[in-house]
Specification:
Shape of chain A: globular
Number of helices of chain B: 0
Number of strands of chain A: 9
Oligomer: heterodimer
Structural class of chain A: mainly beta
Strand content of chain B: over 45%
Structural class of chain B: mainly beta
Shape of chain B: globular
Order of helices and strands of chain A: EEEEEEEEE
Distance between the termini of chain B: 36 Å
Strand order of the largest sheet of chain A: 1-9-8-3-4
Order of helices and strands of chain B: EEEEEEEEEEE
Largest interface: A-B, 19 and 21 residues
Strand content of chain A: 35-45%
Largest sheet of chain B: 7 strands, mixed
Number of strands of chain B: 11
Helix content of chain A: under 10%
Distance between the termini of chain A: 39 Å
């Protein structure tokens, strides 16, 4: 299973963009890259996922490196409600098994 | 998405007893998952519970300690048996609605064992 590496914590000012990195150098060609976040006292929440091309949705953008060994979750304008632990997950193709790493705790400053 | 309800939301139990946690989904799903989140830690997958088959447990988790039922496509239970203080954790269920590997999680059951 591909291993992910994320910084333990990051800070951002409110209404500024945030770039959350994830390294996954052992990713296989069929592994999708998923991002989830866990707000305090809640279960994880799906944010975005992608395979090769960059992806956008209403919550965030996902930028995937050309060699797929790293990716970046982009929050375009951080709000206080975005303070959470963000997880980058690579479920092996066909198994749907999620292996959660330590994630990145994002702190948003007012 | 889906509405996933877990009961109870929290409980305080005595060591040696058992607690059954319920997970109800508002739509039919094939794949359900149970996770444990120990204090200050990330989530760890306990087992995969597909309707019509026995649950598949991950390394370190056994059926005698964490029996799982999956009687239909909208419901599952996880029992934490013969509890000890080390079982104090948040237990979460999740479902894969789309068969694309996207999971939706319940809010969790916060268990404290005294």
């Amino acid at each position: 299973d591909a291993k992910t590496t994320q910084p333990n914590s990051m800070e951002s000012n409110e209404e500024e963009p945030v770039h959350l990195p994830c390294n996954h150098s052992t990713i296989s060609g069929t592994d999708y890259i998923h991002w989830y976040r866990q707000l305090p006292s809640q279960g994880p929440e799906y944010v975005i996922h992608g395979l090769t091309s960059n992806v956008n949705n209403r919550m965030a953008s996902l930028a995937i490196a050309e060699d797929r060994k790293s990716s970046t979750l982009i929050l375009h304008r951080a709000t206080l409600r975005d303070a959470a632990v963000y997880y980058c997950i690579l479920p092996p193709f066909g198994t749907y098994k999620y292996i959660f790493g330590t994630g990145t705790r994002l702190k948003v400053l007012a | 998405s889906a509405v996933i309800s877990q009961k109870p939301s929290r409980d305080i139990c005595q060591r040696g007893t058992s607690l059954t946690i319920q997970c109800q989904v508002d739509s039919q799903v094939t794949m359900m998952f149970w996770y444990r989140q120990q204090p200050g830690q990330s989530l760890t997958l306990i087992a995969t519970a597909n309707q019509g088959s026995e649950a598949t447990y991950e390394s370190g988790f056994v059926i005698d300690k964490f029996p799982i039922s999956r009687p239909n496509l909208t419901f599952s239970t996880l029992t934490v048996s013969n509890m000890s203080p080390e079982d104090s954790s948040i237990y979460l269920c999740s479902v894969d609605l789309t068969a694309m590997g996207i999971q939706y999680f319940g809010a969790g059951t916060r268990l404290s064992v005294l």
